[in-house]
User: Which sequence fits this backbone?
């Protein structure tokens, strides 16, 4: 008996065609259905299609992710469903995938996939990616792996994966980590498990979290106005190990001390951890002494998603810090 997998389609290039007049890629009504009818799918699983949306992924926002998470949770709670595959635009796929990884409470796998090429382009990658993702969903070793991203026959952990190439089908990678496994023809091969997953029990989120990248000569003026703009928290992408210009240090101090604003420190380097090893004013240690929270090797994009989820649970600084540092399942 074939296992049941639910395919949830949200849109993206995988459900786009080339406009004959403008030659630009546009969402096409009915194409999500086409995605669900990929050749060979029936031999692998009993696939049930649910259309969630048909939008480009730059239109996805934290509320959309939250609604998707609740929808997927409901599907996984059905006993006969063994896993869920989600199609999504590649641009923001890693954000949605990590949001789902943090919020879905189930041992059953969730696999996010996409395409870099429209359905009508030569060498379109969507159908193959859907088929490979369904293969992952029915594989017993996928149980307990959380949310994964499967494209170009590689399987990546939601926490680690990022889009690295604007145009190439081999765009998704996990810098500093590597893939969890691969799909090789009809075999699914896992190399390792994602050990640093955290899962939170949330009933709301806080979407007003800003992500700002510091730069040489930054005087902190952009950061200073964040509370006035209605933001409630900040991910600050810093230099190297977690260092900022001295003027930015003073604004971080103002945000934390005067505004009780959580500030998460990440790095513009895409490999390695941030850590307070520099003691000069603006060095990572000076930021840590202020109470800034260091995001380990989490990317800025992922750190923002984690803060959005955690601030739905608490706005208390010490508790935000405790939850942010949680690497383990079941929190
Ligand atoms: N702009 C598209 C999107 O993210 C890109 C893609 O799907 O590859 O919706």
Assistant:
């Amino acid at each position: 008996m074939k296992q049941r997998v639910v395919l949830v389609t949200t849109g993206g290039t995988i459900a786009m065609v080339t406009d004959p007049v403008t030659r630009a890629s546009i969402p096409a009504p009915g194409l999500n259905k086409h995605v669900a009818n990929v050749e060979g799918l029936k031999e692998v699983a009993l696939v049930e299609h649910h259309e969630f949306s048909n939008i480009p992924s730059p239109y996805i926002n934290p509320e959309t992710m939250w609604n998707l998470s609740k929808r997927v949770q409901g599907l996984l709670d059905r006993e006969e469903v063994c896993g869920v595959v989600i199609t999504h635009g590649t641009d923001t796929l890693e954000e949605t995938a990590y949001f789902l990884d943090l919020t879905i409470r189930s041992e059953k796998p969730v696999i996010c996939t996409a395409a870099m090429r429209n359905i009508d382009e030569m060498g379109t990658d969507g159908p193959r990616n859907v088929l490979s993702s369904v293969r992952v969903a029915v594989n017993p070793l996928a149980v307990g792996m959380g949310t994964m991203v499967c494209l170009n026959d590689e399987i990546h952990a939601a926490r680690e994966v990022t889009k690295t190439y604007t145009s190439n089908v081999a765009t998704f990678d996990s810098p500093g980590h590597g893939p969890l496994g691969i799909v090789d023809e009809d075999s699914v091969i896992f190399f390792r498990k994602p050990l640093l997953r955290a899962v939170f029990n949330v009933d709301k989120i806080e979407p007003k979290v800003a992500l700002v990248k510091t730069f040489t000569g930054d005087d902190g003026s952009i950061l200073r106005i964040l509370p006035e703009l209605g933001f409630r928290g900040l991910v600050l992408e810093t230099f190297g190990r977690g260092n900022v210009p001295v003027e930015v240090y003073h604004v971080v101090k103002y945000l934390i001390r005067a505004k009780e604003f959580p500030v998460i420190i990440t790095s513009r380097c895409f490999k390695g951890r941030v850590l307070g090893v520099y003691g000069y004013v603006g060095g990572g240690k000076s930021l840590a002494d202020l109470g800034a929270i260091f995001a380990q090797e989490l990317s800025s994009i992922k750190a923002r998603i984690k803060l959005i989820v955690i601030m739905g649970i608490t706005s208390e600084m010490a508790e935000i810090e405790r939850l942010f540092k949680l690497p383990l399942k079941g929190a």
